[in-house]
Amino acid sequence: MFVQVRRIQVTEGNSDQVVERFSKPGIIEEQEGFIDSTIMVKDVRRGEEEVVIQIRWESEEYWKQWEKSEAHIAGHKANLGKPKPEYIIQTDVSKYHVKAVKTPQN
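^ that's the sequence the OP posted. Answer follows.
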């Protein structure tokens, strides 16, 4: 399994906008090898908020296939030159190879 993790820091009160954007149905769900996407918001009292999006793929090869797909590239080209929303402070993307998974023992 292969996982891409995107951490997005936003100004206070704006995490819901990021959650809404990444929760909408899209073409990624139709891609071969896509397992699921989890959207999480870090529990903070005040100040900057953090949204974490975890996208799981069956393998790195399926992720690469998605990254190189016409649909994915077209989506990025559509936003080329557009400024990022003012509430986004920083975005960090990491990739991981899953080495072990624990499940309940019944």
